[in-house]
Request: fold
Amino acid sequence: MSFERAAAFAPINIALSKYWGKRDHERNLPLAPSVSVTLAELGTLSVVAPSEELEGNMMVINDKAADAKALVRVGRVMRTVREMAGTEVRAGIRSVNTVPTAQGLASSASAFAALAKAATTAYGLELDDQELSKIARLGSGSATRSVHGGFVLWRRGEEDDGSDSLAEQLASAEDWPLRAVIAHIGVGPKKVPSGDGMRLSADTSPFFSAWIDTCFTDVAECLAAIAARDFERLADVTESNCLAMHATMLATRPGLIYWQPATVAVMHAVRALRAAGHAAFFTIDAGPSVVVLCEAGEVETVSRTLGGIEGVVKLTRTRIGGGAHIVPNG
Ligand code: DP6
Reply:
């Protein structure tokens, strides 16, 4: 079998009903299902070049050698790809993010979805997107969802080997073309990585089991809202799921406080907009920045409102987009 260099781009995604809790930390198997939207433009380009001359995988992230933690995750993905391709050949890997790493904007999601797409292509594997999502999952749980565009469900799965814990598309970006305005807040990397935070919440947060129960009902509610294209219903469930996750984080010991004052100000501003009849709602991952989803006609109003809030350092306007794809000559 001959191997060829391949480049792939994958976008970030933002969960509407979130993933915060694992039943298996090696395979990134979740305790509950989750639902997300994939955002256009922001993401990661990953280039994988297999070479007989390499003794181990070489990895560069944003022009710096990958650290040990990243190499462990990359190793899990690459080992699986090599086993499936039946080869020992290692690869040089280069990854470039268009989102700041480790700021709670899901850069690991786009990074591992892009890596899975580029690596499987470079090693000559032809997989459908559901199979691909399982390989992306080995790098980072949320990467499972970034393989697909549009509205995405990541099934919890029941099997211990993770064979049924995969993502599928619920609706495409064209089916329901919502927009997103990202309010970037705060600087510097977050202190507690998601995986460690999840473990800590599971071990110490008194709300943890209620949170996991909530995810099952919230996912069902998201599916119904998306199927009916019911904006209000999606707004309500998304905000309350986000707040329930942060309540669980806050009650963790020691408390995981990802918010900054501007985070709270943005939440109030978005609530006030919706009360005044504007179709917009917020959600927040494990970081201070806020993603506001809205209807196309509301982008100007939302941007103007968020732009006037102290502590919002930058706004990015984007839309719901497509999933991971090969970049010819990338
Ligand atoms: C708060 O996917 O980054 O963004 O599986 O350990 O890599 P690992 O965690 P990660 O966690 C994402 C958590 C979240 C919620 C979500 O995206 O669903």
In short: Residues 145 and 167 are 6 Å apart (CA to CA). The chain has two domains: 6-172, 179-319.
